[in-house]
Design goal:
Elements: E1 7-16, E2 19-29, E3 34-38, H1 45-52, E4 60-65, E5 68-69, E6 72-74, E7 80-82, H2 85-93, E8 95-98, H3 110-120, H4 126-139, H5 155-167, E9 173-177, H6 185-200, E10 205-208, H7 212-218, E11 221-226, E12 229-234, H8 236-241, H9 246-255
Helix pairs in contact: 3-4, 3-5, 4-5, 5-6
């Protein structure tokens, strides 16, 4: 197994105006790691994921994907942007992002949603992409919905379609930003079952979630963020069972 992390974030600082949301965060995921990112609302969890693929550009810090450092440049106003748009686009295709909201294209069928980016962004053969998309929709349990439009799907089905769409890009790592938070309680389980399957396959994943029981079972590492800094980082048995941080202990006690 490669010793180069699949994803590495080093010294990440992110501010929104005077508010410092991330305060020098270091986080890496090796190939096959499932890293659960925990913390109260406003702790910086989603912002950290969004910095990983430059949906939010950090004021300081370094991001590398499979050993390739994302090049950033500083503009005259002090803000930073990607120095090489082609590099950014290429690296983004290797990070599959699944959001709280499903973000499916409403005017396309489920199958077309999954096929669109591999064909038009990665320039892959359409027939090959369709075959792969069919297999992915089977994997997430909605093959029978492939010709339906998103509006005709339940929230759980839409989120599973979004997962299939991210997987279709053959990403090096998957980023899940609270993928069940917009779902009715009875639909949460069907999405978590898909994520569990991906973990069992050895997929590299960063998972922001409030489903602490699930995180404890599935994650290989758990990280607790508090006010933009990592307060706890270790095996789930240690983080959930004997956290060193008092804030982490209180958070877990309140949630479980």
């Amino acid at each position: 197994m490669s010793q180069t992390p699949a994803l590495s974030l080093s010294g990440i600082v992110k501010r929104f105006g005077p508010l410092e949301v991330l305060r020098g965060v270091d986080l890496s995921a090796r190939h096959g790691d499932v890293v659960a990112i925990l913390g109260a609302s406003g702790s910086g969890k989603s912002t950290l994921l969004r910095c990983a693929n430059l949906l939010e550009v950090p004021e300081a810090g370094e991001i590398s994907v499979a050993g390739e450092v994302l090049r950033l440049k500083t503009r005259p106003d002090g803000s930073r942007v990607a120095a090489d748009r082609r590099q950014l686009d290429r690296v983004r295709t290797s990070l599959g992002m699944v959001f709280q909201q499903f973000n499916l294209w409403a005017h396309m069928t489920v199958l077309d949603n999954v096929v669109e980016a591999p064909v038009h962004v990665q320039k892959r053969n359409r027939a090959e992409c369709v075959a792969e998309a069919e297999a992915l929709l089977e994997k997430v349990g909605i093959a029978d919905k492939r010709h339906h439009y998103p509006a005709h799907l339940s929230g759980g089905q839409q989120q599973r379609a979004a997962i299939a769409r991210a997987l279709a890009m053959r990403p090096a790592a998957m980023l899940f930003d609270e993928p069940t938070s917009s779902l009715d309680p009875e639909l949460v389980g069907e999405v978590l079952r898909v994520i569990r399957t991906l973990a069992e396959e050895g997929r590299t994943m960063l998972l922001v979630t409030h489903e602490l029981g699930f995180a404890r079972e599935v994650a290989s590492r758990a990280v607790f963020l508090h006010r933009g800094a990592i307060e706890e980082d270790g095996p789930p048995a240690q983080v959930f069972g004997a956290p060193k941080s008092e804030r982490c202990r209180q958070f877990i006690a309140a949630q479980l």
